[in-house]
């Protein structure tokens, strides 16, 4: 429980014994200082009461914010006053070190905040949120201009987004929905082949002077003789080979998993 020992001087004194506000305002001793032995009691009462009531009021504010207000601890009293000033900002409390993060608004476009620190303004949301050339993405086909204002153009449908950079300036379009593979794009592969026969043919061989029985022997005379003959050529011929083909040369399409959204670009 926070404490305070500040009290109001002449708290219960009769008002007749305290100089009035009108008299106090023009009193020469208030203005020029008290002359020893000449200051009236009611003037002293006014002086002390006014000073002490302000001190007591400040002390009460400190106590209500959980800060001690003791005249025996000047440094602690200063620290308590600082914390209390911070605590009065819309009821927010500082941390253990007495720090409080707060955005102070004195005026915005000439408008002053209310007692709660709020300022009522008409903000240009269109230019605050977007600028000409910016893109807004929507799930539904609703032109952002109907709510934000400005002129918006729906980008061409059926296109994927690619970040701009070197070689790809912003706003350029390219690519295609499909492509046809060339020879260099195909993987290594094989084909089946069938060879057909070229028809029947034959070869001839002849043997002459072939004896099936022995003869009489004699000098330089053989019992029998035989000869090997050459076969006749059948002539050149050919075979037919067929290699199966496949494929229709259709374009290849590549389409990853997608979510369709509308892209709007602000043009004016």
UniProtKB/TrEMBL annotation:
<dbReference type="Pfam" id="PF21939">
    <property type="entry name" value="Gp10_C"/>
</dbReference>
<protein>
    <recommendedName>
        <fullName>Baseplate structural protein Gp10 C-terminal domain-containing protein</fullName>
    </recommendedName>
</protein>
<feature type="domain" description="Baseplate structural protein Gp10 C-terminal">
    <location>
        <begin position="132"/>
        <end position="267"/>
    </location>
</feature>
<dbReference type="InterPro" id="IPR053827">
    <property type="entry name" value="Gp10_C"/>
</dbReference>
